[in-house]
Amino acid sequence: MYAMVREFLERLGSGDELIEYSTGDKRIAMAVLLFRVVTADGKIRDRELTRYREILQDELEVRPDEIELFDRMVREEAESEKSLFPFTTIVSKMPLETKRHILDLMRDLSVADNELHEFEISLVARTAELLGLEIDD
C-alpha cells in the first residue's frame, strides 16, 4: 500500500509538489462526515459517489490530480474510526457558517440518489447535535 501511494506521488512531479494529508486535516474530517452519508444506508450508489466527488473538488478544493489519494485517505479514516466524534471535534472548531454548510452538503448528498434513508436522516441529525447546531440551522 505504501509503495502505491509513493508511486502515485512520484508521478505527480518533483518532491516539492508532494501532497500530504493527516488525520487532523480539516478537509479529511469534513470529507469523512460526507462519506459517511454515502455509506449510511449500506449501499454506495453511483449518483452519491459522483456527487461526493464533486463536493470534494468544488467545496473542499481537492484538485483532480489529488482526488484518488484524498478519497483513499478519507475511506481509511472512515474505516478505522467508527465514531463521528473525532471528526465533529475538528469541524466544531470551524466558523458557524462552515458548520452549517457541512450540514447542507450532507443533506444534499443524502438525496443525491433520489432516496432519503432513515439512517441518512439520523446521521445528519447526530452530526448537527455534535456540532452544537439545531437540525434546521
Walkthrough of the structure:
There is one protein chain. The model is unreliable at 11-20 (pLDDT under 50). The chain has helices at 2-12, 26-39, 46-58, 67-80, 85-91, 96-110, 118-130. The protein is 64% helix and 0% strand. The protein has 137 residues and is mainly alpha-helical. The termini are far apart. Helix 2 (26-39) runs parallel beside helix 6 (96-110) and helix 2 runs antiparallel to helix 7. The protein is built from 7 helices and no strands. It has one domain: Orthogonal Bundle (TerB-like), CATH 1.10.3680.
String of helices and strands: HHHHHHH
What is the CATH homologous superfamily assignment?
Answer: TerB-like
What Rg is obtained from the alpha carbons, in whole angstroms? 15 Å
CATH topology: TerB-like
- What is the count of helical runs? 7
Strand content: under 5%
The CATH architecture term is: Orthogonal Bundle
Total beta-strand segments: 0
Helical residues, percent:
55-70%
Please summarize what this structure is:
The protein is mainly α and 137 residues long. It is 64% helix and 0% strand.
Fold blueprint:
Elements: H1 2-12, H2 26-39, H3 46-58, H4 67-80, H5 85-91, H6 96-110, H7 118-130
Helix pairs in contact: 2-3, 2-4, 2-5, 2-6, 2-7, 6-7
